[in-house]
Amino acid sequence: MMGMKKRFSALLTGLAITMALSLGLAAPAFAQSAQDQINNGLCAGSNLQFTENPGQCSAASSDATTKINNLVRTVVNLLSAVVGIVAVIMIIVGGFRYVTSGGNDTSVTAAKNTILYAIIGLIVVALAQIIVRFTLSKLTNG
Question: Considering the entire predicted model, what is its pTM?
Answer without folding.
Answer: 0.52
